[in-house]
Amino acid sequence: MLVRSLRLLALAVLAAVAPLAGGSAFALTPPPPSLAKAGEITFCTELGQPPAAYISADGMTSVGFEVDLMKAIGSELGLKTRIVNYKLAGLLGALDSNKCDAVMATMGVTPERLKRYNYVEYIKSASGLLVPRGNPLRLETYEDLSARRVAVNQGSSNERRLKEASERLVKAGKPPIDILTYPTYAVAFRELEMGRVDAFASAALTRSYYLSRSSGRFEIGGTPIPPNPFGIMLRKTDIEEAFAIRDAWRALLADGTVQKIVSKWGAEQAGPLCDGYCDHPGASGLAGGVEPPKPGEAQVTKLPVRFDVPFFLDFVFNPSRALLQGLGLTILAAGVSLACGASLGILLAIGGLSRFKALHVFNQVFVGFFRGTPVLVQLVLIYFGLPALMGGVDLFPATMNILGLRVSGALVAGILTFSLHEAAYMSEIFRAGIQSIDVGQSEAAKSLGMPPGLAMRRIILPQAFRVIVPPLGNQFNIMLKTTSLLSVIAIPELFHVADAVQSATYKAFEVYLGVSIYYLVLTGAWTLVQRQIEARMRSGSVKAATAPGRADLAPLRR
Amino acid sequence: MARADEAAVAVSAVRLRGVSKWFGSTQILHGVDLDVAQGETIVIVGPSGSGKTTLIRCINRLEVVQEGTIEVGGEYIGARMAGGKLVPLSEKKIAAQRTRIGMVFQRFNLFPHMTALENVMEAPIHVRKLPRPQAAQEARALLAKVGLADKTDSYPRELSGGQQQRVAIARMLAMRPDLLLFDEPTSALDPEMVGEVLEVMRALALQGMTLIVVTHEMGFARDVANRIVFMDKGVILESATPAEFFSHPKHPRAIEFLSKVRAGPAMAKTEGDH
Predict the structure, then answer these.
(1) B212 pairs with which residues across the strands?
(2) Which runs of E-coded beta strand occur in A344-411?
(3) How far is the CA of B40 from the CAs of A249, A347, B213, in angstroms?
(4) Which long-range contacts (CB under 8 A, 24 or more apart) does B143-146 make?
(5) Of B70, B66, B28, nearest to B50 (Cα)?
(6) Distance from CA of B51 to the nearest CA of A (A)
């Protein structure tokens, strides 16, 4: 289970590129010239949403209901099918930047998306809530989720619907919905399993799959979102390609291929199939009033390159409340992690230098592990892995009481992970600092009757700090950036908020550049502070340098 | 020599029995026996590498001996007797024992992040638990005693070698030790500063404190020591009064050593001190 989560979580934008089934020699539906020339059709999807599209247990084979459909479409067009894996929130950015020809990833049709993309609608599926068995909180509609915690996939249409429902609740004077957005369905479901959320919102196809795997512990609380079309998405300019896929789809429906795939995956209950435009079966056009190109008509091949300057300036200089809160959370997480990491690091370093073998070995193992594994792996290991290991005792419940403050368990897990990770680096930095101090200093302290702890605290550490401060500053700089990984566990820090804006507006470049500016300001400001501290220390050390004046003349001690 | 030792045993401040020390597989000390009487000033001399420094570092347990026992003021250092066996003491207990044994190092080892006054006050405040004003008052008096009343607020870096070593002596005295160990206290000094440090040491010896000094300053040995201990290759070869040792050395290696230091430039300088 853990290994599976780790894999599904991998944030690497391009986790798997899987060339699939070769094209059939006999194209039944003529491919558009652009695709015929390439000899293949590339789909972007998110291979973390079983049963539609996921990676099988071997860690490399893409399987699923939609994967089979994508392959069938490729064959029908006489093309090779290539499937590229992105997390859901990054799929449309991948399409915009020509990483693929089409996206098939259980993407619901929304008015905003229709303005930017062509849709070949293939199914109508209802959305709703998966809840613990017996539905103790009686969660049936999205409005019932007021003041409740709900998991949803980041960038999904259900995320948008939940936000709209939450705004309606707030307008009606009720508490908002606590919406937690996760990069994959698997992670969102894991949160429900651990009881960290009250419900999991998704489309029927996904929901029924998880229902079947939950051994009766969950049920469908309600299906408040009526059946809504899902479609294969293409760039607005790729009209010819959209109609080629639509025609291939119709051919696959006509010869029963689609129905076979549906029954193979038990997806009948997902909803009724469509033939390209759900509301108008047999229509010549596609949703959004897209008509097939007339023969001989010149096709627009490219959208003009556009950088939305007003949007960008607004994003950066008129930040939303959420973005500012994200910025605060980033600074808080980095600061607390560094402080805890440094404190723990001192103890670790002293343990590592101790004459007690057990402490020394512990230091070696600890430092080896936390320096030798990626911090992202450590994060999911602690947040998802530890509670699984503890047999259902969740160390990081939805909210925790820390020193009288109500804190999100995910944030505690994140800070704990970063603190441990930081402590490993700090331990090495402190060890080097302590070892840089002349042994004569600790001998002088000993000869005055100072016990080891007092000598460390009063004599060694104050001198070691001069050596330690510069690398300590660098660690904080790194930590400020490392916090962006918290987005994986739905902590609304700076990057998570920006990512949400991106997946709602599709302005990937503007948003990511904007958030980069925020990080640059943070790290830049810290660099200035660090220089000040170091300059002050240098002026202090003119008075009190470590080396006594005549040390070079001293013969070596026996 | 043996007679001189027996006379000293009456009030024994330090007693070493069969002390052996190895660094790895190299044996540095070979079963050393030594008795130092209360109020006595012992100067240990010998060629470099003879184990002099190691010997006095063993006395306050900066080095741990593998064989033999060391007693200071009638108490075993680093161990206690339990049921006829020596049992090692905890670091805390050893630290408490060290408060009674002062040490001055060749390279001063002042705390560079503290002023002269803070260097002297540090251990009284944190080890003797003196209130700060009282520690400051005592520290000022000690700095005045070593002739540095005007340097209390100077950092070690701002002081000459001789001044630093005098601060180190004041720092040691602030713990009110019963036994003072000096490990080549003038070896790292420029020649013109050697005199001021030896002067302070001479004053301490005259006050009746117990001193064990490792030094190459033969003038100091001759004038101040009650007894000279000559070591070579980890063994004490001769123990005699300065008069006996310098005029009638008995052991062939002592004779050889003395002829060398008399011929050497260091001796010429020390002679000039007279």
Answers:
(1) B42, B181
(2) 399-402, 405-408
(3) 108, 45, 11
(4) B143/B116, B143/B117, B143/B167, B143/B170, B145/B170, B145/B173, B146/B170, B146/B200
(5) B28
(6) 7
CA distances in angstroms from B91 to A453, A472, A477, B48, listed in the order given: 10, 31, 39, 31
Would you call A441 and B92 a contact, using CB atoms and an 8 Å cutoff?
no
The whole-angstrom separation of Cα A233 and Cα A113 is 9
- Tokens for A470, please give them: 């510069």
Q: Chain B: residue nearest A552 by CA?
A: B188
Residue appearing with tokens 């004077």 = A173
The partner residues of A102 in beta bridges, in order of sequence, read A43
Measured distance CA(A127)–CA(A158) in Å, rounded: 7
pLDDT tens per residue across span B33-72: 999 999 999 999 999 889 999 999 999 999 999 999 999 9
Question: Given an 8 Å threshold on Cβ–Cβ distance, is B172 in contact with A448?
Answer: yes
* Closest residue on chain A to B103 (Cα): A447
pTM over cut 0.90: no
Assess contact for A193 and A384: CB atoms under 8 A: no
Q: Are the CB atoms for B239 and B208 separated by under 8 Å?
A: no
Token pair for A516? 């980069």
The 8-class DSSP code of residue A144 comes to: G
**ipTM of the modeled complex:** 0.90
Q: How many residues can be counted in chain A?
A: 558
- DSSP H helices, A436-507, are 439-447, 452-455, 461-482, 494-505
| pLDDT band, residue A264 (cuts 50/70/90) | confident
- Residue bearing tokens 């004038």: B223
Q: Tell me what the mean pLDDT of segment B202-225 comes to.
A: 94
What is the four-CA torsion angle of A517, A520, A521, A524, rounded to 10 degrees? Answer: -160
Task: Check pLDDT > 70 for residue A542.
Answer: no
A123 strand-pairing partners: A230, A273
Given this model, what pLDDT does residue A305 score? 61
Q: Is the CB of B258 inside 8 Å of chain A's CB atoms? A: no
Cβ <8 Å between B188 and A553: yes
Identify the helix (H) or strand (E) that includes residue B59. helix B52-59
Residues 6+ apart with CB under 8 A from B121: B132, B135, B136, B139, B174
Closest by CA position to A185, among listed A145, A158, A165, A221: A158
pLDDT (tens digit, 9 = 90+) per residue, B82-110?
Answer: 888 888 899 899 999 999 999 999 999 99
